[in-house]
Amino acid sequence: MSGKHHQEDKLMMAYYKAADFFDKNKKHIYTALTILVVVIAGIILLVNKRTANNELAAVEIEKIKPVYVANNFKQAIEGDSLGNSKGLLYIVNEYGSTENGELAKFMLANSYYALRDFDNAEKYYKDYSGSNKLINVSVLAGLAGVYEAKGNYNEAAKQFLKASVADKENPFVDQYLFYAARSFYKAGDFKASKDLFDELKKDHPKSKYIAESDRYKAGMKN
Question: What is the DSSP letter of 173?
Answer without folding.
Answer: H
